[in-house]
Amino acid sequence: MNIIIRHFLAHARVFAISFMASLGGYLFGFHFGVITAMLPFLRTAFALNQLQEGFLTGSLALGCILGCLWSGKISDEKGRKPTLGITAVFFTVSALGMAMAPNLLVLLAFRFSAGIGVGMASIICPLYLAEISPAAIRGRMVAIYQLMIVLGIFGTNLSNYMLATQGEDAWRWMVGLGVLPALLLLVGFNRIPESPRWLLLNLKTAEADKVLHFIGDKNLRREAHEAGMELHSERASIREIFSPSLCPVVMRGIMLAVFQQFCGINIVFNYTSTIFASVGANLDRQLLETVLISLVNIVFTLVAMWQVDRLGRKPLMLIGALGLAIDYVVLSILLHHHAHPNWISLLVIIAIALYASSLAPVTWILIAEIFPNQIRGRASSIAVMSLWLAYFVLVLTFPILSKVIGITGSFYLYAGICLLGLVFIQKQVKETKGKTLEEIEHQQLQ
């Protein structure tokens, strides 16, 4: 009985630590989703044109690219825990700054700052969770981060819907609410331990042993001590990463990351109001749709977590790419004929369900799996930066595309990209289900 109690307490501590670290994921979802409801108010407040609207939405991604660069460097030099603290500072300051922004330039600057926080979180949170968790529950712990992202989007859309009646400054309250989880992370990061693997890597054995004793998992102690001797091989130069032998797998990861964005689904997330306004839906209906979309996102993220180790990575990716291509074509036809918003809502929900159960989570999993041990950290950072750059291009160009070729033409374009992605996945992506990282490394380099 005492053994069972100790085992439960050990995992309970890890769950508590993981929840606190995963707040970075919630804030990721918050800043990603809040712009959707803000845009209708900002168009009036700042008389936005199409380019300004696209740049404001995409400025988050530019900050993310910088945040990815900083996060990797700071976390290697200063530790995972201090990096989480710096991330929390960016989230807190940016939410306050955007809520009180007197003009568009200031708003842009603080949304860029929020992007730095999101970029740092997208690197440090999964890394910390993986390093702090025992092998038996590591998958669930890292999955908490993805779940917190979609919960952040849902919570944000729900609060936005409730705040929409607060007048022309409702957008300030919408973004200002981000201060609350940011402050919780800022206060809470002091109560979590440093990564034992980082401590071992930096020859701080005594401190690492204290953390491992606190967690109380013997397997993690052994894994961490082994990692402390082996992780030196993970640091590689850019020249090594793009050497002839490794470049193909690195490019495969970059292409997966770029396709996850260029498939077009984040247009649905970020421009929901624009899509539904095109078929005559009022603001209340537009904001209600964002709540429904984020709820579907949560449900089908759970479906992906359930199926990814059963059905496999490649089948899910193929289903997502083909399904989105078909869905976009039908959606374009309905938008062209100004169909009832209920039909548009159905097609949008199907698109979100397809994406949330395939391309969204599986791309992150593949990026974490396919790179060889000696380049995994640096190569993952490059892939994630490519993802955010692709997101920036996507949201920047959509308002312009919708003006030049219309919303229907834009979705025909995204359908074509999805078909190209389908071919790429079929020819280049290899199944990794059930394989060790070493087996995957051998498979990818063949």
Structure report:
- Helices cover 81% and strands 0% of the residues.
- With 446 residues, the protein is mainly α.
- The longest helix is centred in the first third of the chain and has 45 residues, at 2-46.
- The protein is globular.
- The mean pLDDT is 83.
Key words describing this protein structure:
single chain, 446 residues, mainly alpha, globular
The count of strands amounts to 0
Calculate the terminal CA-CA distance, rounded to whole Å: 49 Å
**What is the strand content?**
under 5%
Please describe the biggest sheet, giving its number of strands, its sense, and whether it closes into a barrel.
none
Low-confidence stretches: none
Shape: globular
Helix content: over 70%
How big is the Rg?
A: 22 Å
How many individual helices?
21
**Class derived from helix and strand content:** mainly alpha
Please tell me the overall pLDDT.
83
Q: H/E order of the elements?
A: HHHHHHHHHHHHHHHHHHHHH
